[in-house]
Request: fold
Amino acid sequence: MTILEMSLKIKGWRKITKWAIWSVLALLLLVFLVRVITFENNYYSEKEGSERAVTEQVVGNSDLDETEPTEAEIKEYTVSPDRPRYLTIEKLGITNSRILPMGVNTNGELDTPNNIFDVGWYEGSGKPGQGGTMIIDGHNGGPHVYGVFKNLPNLVEGDIIQVERGDGAVFKYKVAENKAVPLSDSNKYMAVAAKSPEYGKESVTLISCTGEWSQQQGTYLSRQFTRAVLVD
Reply:
């Protein structure tokens, strides 16, 4: 065998060896990716229906503001004299949470404030002191922090919810009902939530996400409805 033939043979083996190494690396990478995908699928399947530890992920809104308003910002917040301004629930540690006017989103659902420490008052519902039913909603959390209504399910019959109006007048409402409604039934239940639990009495209904978390739907599987009537 000549030196040239030996050189060509060595180069050939080097090419084969190099190709074999890259093939092995590619195969290992493929196996790794398959394992990761399989793990994620199994993980989400196991978590489906479990309670999410901290937060809610609102579909179409991943930019929730988790900055707690300062005392100055809260004091500076004003509304018209006949509109709700602040929400206070001493039992839950909620003091003067700003009540922002809200409408409905493009899906026809009640909109919610961008800040997880604020609550939203549906402008199409009642006003404090005018005999109707106010509808107020809020987040139970953001991407990293608990929200204003995280502990809303803890309220029981007889607990007090306080609403301060724009002119400073304070209205107290006593909880008459607090229940979790499956997401699939929540729209239908809104007809009930928009009425007073005691005929002829002014009331307020608080709404928030609660219950088990659905990774597939990107939301909780229940809605909490807390209904309270005006204290005479």
Q: What stands out?
A: Residues 1-47 form one domain. Residues 146 and 160 are 22 Å apart (CA to CA). DSSP finds three helices and eight strands in the chain.
